Amino acid sequence: MKRIVVDPPVSEARRERVERQLFQQLAAVRVADRAEAVIPRPKKSRSNYWFAFGGLAAAALALLLLTTRDGGSGGQTVVSPSRVVTPVAGETTFMIGRDAVIGAKSDTSVEWQQGNDGSITLTLERGAVDCQVEPRHGRPPFKVISGDVTVIVVGTRFTVTHNPSPRVDVAHGKVRVEAPGGTWFVEAGESWTPIGQVAAAKPAVTAEPIEEPVVDEPAPEIEMDPLQLPRAKKPAPSDGVDSARSPKPEARGPIAPPATRELAREAYRAAQRLENTDPKLAAANYRAIAHGKDEGWAATALVALAELSLKQGDPAAAVEALDEHSRKFPRSAMREDAAWFRIEALRTMGKRDEARGAAADYLREFPDGVYVKPAARLVK
Amino acid sequence: VGLSIVERPTPEDDAELVAACISGDLVAQRALFRREYPRVNATVYRLIGSARDADDLVQETFIAVFRGLSRFRGDSKLATWIDRIAVRVVFHHIRTRGRAPLSLDVIGDVEASGGSTDAQAHARDGLRRLYGALAELTPEARTAFALFAIDGRSISEVAQLTQTSFVAAKCRIWRARREIMKKAKEDPVLAELVKPEREAGRFTRTAADGGGK
Predict the structure, then answer these.
(1) A–B: how many Cβ contacts below 8 A?
(2) Is A6 in contact with B70 (Cβ distance < 8 A)?
(3) DSSP per-residue codes, B122-170
(4) SS3 letters across chain A
(5) Do A88 and B67 touch (CB under 8 A)?
(6) Which of A23, A242, B118, B127 has the greatest number of beta carbons closer than 10 A?
């Protein structure tokens, strides 16, 4: 295919406008970083020249508030609605009322609001927050929202992480996590992620009203071993594939296959986001999705696992994943791509004869395929 | 005592420039922006096909660049590092927006090099159809294809910029090309724009890219 010529519009005025707006924004960001807390949420419109001035004014107001209010134990008290922004490698602690101490970690943006009923809602836009919250006996509800996941406090100390996918770690007490696909209780020492939720937390049989805290009430458990200890579901057997080769998750308990299509999709997205930060966990997640009930996502996850394995310099694992793909999903919409991908993986491994054989197979199966030319060259 | 204003020279070496930018030197920051803007703007525009979105995304890219400059370790060229951020910003934009219909300003201000008004209108129409077809691809395939076929990057560069393997980048480009060619079969205007360059197309020249892998 020839190169398609697309000349970008060149205009000095455009460059100057972009430059002006960029440095206005940078100035506002710098001030916000220094202040650590910016009260009003700035509008996203980048064409608004008032953005920078608004940011500066907000930062100045935030500084004024922080310097005039009583700090209390563990941090400054901020008023609703507030947005707290921390810079990279910077942390801050603030109090909400008298019963919640929030630690915002590095590169975090969190907004909190108080409802008319006194309920407190933290919306985590990026980063992570450590929350120490008094039990909610008779107190207004306290929630943390991270994407489409809502953590409802029962009485506890916990951490909610937004990036790369929502994660909840509970140090003391108990929280309820509501996410697409279900509701889970997470207790002290447990963690919750969209993928490993079954391993980490116990599904709630029925939703409970927020106003009725259940601090002393044992969470319903659906699986008990003979010693009456909760045990996570184990992943399904890998159909003869050498699982020792596949990367394993860290010591967070086994990752259960997603039970619904919705969860599989969420899990797939989370795994994609994890590829750069934690490829082993991403691979483990892809494998868990591959064992899930939704065939479409399972097939897609196997191809993604193969791509990731190749990227990680493990073409053998890529071939295994692709073999599993063709064995389990012979009618998959991605079978042509998977077949070509396998040929490339074999070539990367130096197995030229096998690659040539696979290319011949490809030509037989996909005579009009998109990779016919390179496959034919390989066979020759 | 007489005072005179002496213009400070802007550092030309990448390491010096980065150090100056990190220390908050606005002159250095503007120098870096002006040096990198033309390439970043071109890449972003070619990926997205809309001048208005491109301006926003270029700004977003440079904000990320200046905020993350302290993490630049010098493992790759500064330009590559910046391009990678730009590609990530555009990719995120495409993924967030989903397969939304194209806005009217897409390729609205393409300046065809010379030619009659008719020819310019024809070129605009072709590009509008191309970006319409690209909008139906997955973000991964779209990004890889646009970097390769429109921005003129090699497959190795595409792999580097999209932080994926050479094979995966190649597969994505192939996949996108297949879909574009399917559309072109039914669309003569698009077909004229993307018609193959004789038999030995650019895509098949992979040896220089390390295609012997």
Answers:
(1) 115
(2) no
(3) HHHHHHHHHHHHHTTS-HHHHHHHIIIIIS---HHHHHHHTTS-HHHHH
(4) CCCCCCCCCCCHHHHHHHHHHHHHHHHHHHHHHHHCEECCCCCCCCCCCHHHHHHHHHHHHHHHHHHHCCCCCCCEECCCCEEEECCCCCCEEEEECCCEEEEECCCCEEEEEECCCCCEEEEEEECEEEEEECCCCCCCCEEEEECCEEEEEEEEEEEEECCCCCEEEEEEEEEEEEECCEEEEEECCCEECCCCHHHHCEECCCCCCCCCCCCCCCCCCCCECCCCCECCCCCCCCCCCCHHHCCCCCCCCCCCCCCCHHHHHHHHHHHHHHHHHCHHHHHHHHHHHHCCCCHHHHHHHHHHHHHHHHHCCCHHHHHHHHHHHHHHCCCCCCHHHHHHHHHHHHHHHCCHHHHHHHHHHHHHHCCCCCCHHHHHHHHC
(5) yes
(6) B127
Cβ pair A4:B194 closer than 8 A: yes
Contact between B150 and A3 using a beta-carbon 8 Å cutoff: yes
With beta carbons under 8 A apart, name residues in chain B contacting A3.
149-150, 152, 202
Asked if A43 has any chain B CB less than 8 Å from its own CB, the reply is no
Contact at CB, B167 and A341, closer than 8 angstroms = yes
Q: Which two tokens stand for residue A134?
A: 């008094």
Written as tens digits, the pLDDT of chain A (380 aa) is 667 888 787 778 888 888 888 887 777 766 655 554 434 444 444 545 555 555 565 555 555 444 444 433 344 455 566 778 777 666 777 777 767 778 887 778 888 888 777 788 888 888 888 887 777 767 778 888 887 777 877 766 777 877 666 778 777 777 778 776 677 777 777 777 776 554 444 444 333 333 332 333 333 322 322 222 223 333 333 333 333 333 333 334 456 677 777 777 777 777 777 777 778 888 888 888 888 877 778 888 888 888 888 888 889 999 999 999 888 888 776 777 788 889 988 988 889 899 999 999 989 988 877 678 888 888 88
Q: Is the pTM of this model over 0.80?
A: no
Range 93-122 of B in CB contact (< 8 A) with A: 107, 109-113
Would you call B143 an interface residue with chain A, using a CB distance cutoff of 8 Å? Answer: no
Is A310–B175 a contact, with Cβ atoms under 8 angstroms apart? no
Q: Phi and psi of A361, rounded to 5°?
A: -60, -40
Q: Does B174 touch chain A (CB under 8 A)?
A: yes
B170, B194, B204 member nearest A373 (Cβ): B204
Helix axes A295-311, A261-277, angle to 10 degrees: 10
Whether A257 and A285 have beta carbons less than 8 Å apart is answered as no
Nearest to B149 among A3, A311, A344 (CB): A3
- Which of B29, B62, B165 should be substituted to probe chain A, the one whose Cβ sees the most A Cβ atoms within 10 Å? B165
Residue numbers in A near B30 (CB within 8 A): 19, 23
Q: What is the C-alpha to C-alpha distance for residues B196 and B202, in angstroms, rounded to an integer?
A: 9
Contact present, A85 and A109 (Cβ < 8 Å): yes
Q: What residues of A are in contact with residue B196 (Cβ under 8 Å)?
A: 1-2
CB contact under 8 A, B110 and A23: no
CA-CA distance, A302 to A325, in Å (whole number)?
6
